[in-house]
Amino acid sequence: MALVGKKYPHINTGAVIDGEEIVENFSLDQYLGKKYVILFFYPKDFTFVCPTELHAFQEKLREFEKRGAVVVGCSTDTEETHLAWLNTPKEQGGIQGITYPIIADTSKTVSLNCGVLGGEYVFNNETRTWSFVGNPVAFRGTFLIDKEGIVRHESINDLPLGRNIDEYLRLLDAQLHVEKFGEVCPANWEEGEAAMEATNAGVANYFSQN
To answer: Which residues carry out catalysis (predicted)?
Structure first.
């Protein structure tokens, strides 16, 4: 079920922050009323596409911060595995140099509640036991959350498909524009371009200028 327009699911779990410190009770609640959040999920530490994405988010981190946003990563690996990967040099496939928080969703509840887990728990009535069916890792889900904790965008890529990080900057710019001016953003809109009023007159005026 889509989360767009709804409050993000509660998160209270372990994470690594500042690339070196393990914390036990990391929550997005600390950003409420203060920051926009780009929350992204990735499948596994020590893999192939994943480090390219984590480094790409780091390279654009200042751009997100300039817009009043924080970036938070998440996978189903442990805090200790995150830390080991953070201590591995980039040229060896590691993510050394990443400074934004990385959540350790070892219980898989964060991924499950956000709808990005690549499988599900199934109860067997005969054995009275639960088992996991599918791939117990997160797809490449990405969520734009506003300052009030409302999800304004979500997208989910299959495991082999890496993200375009610039698209999330564009979406953040659009959200900021909507909030500031009350206009809506048409197809392929980018910061500095004309938006439109959500009226027939506004649409007509937009197309007359483009």
So the answer is: 50 (cysteine sulfenic acid (-soh) intermediate)
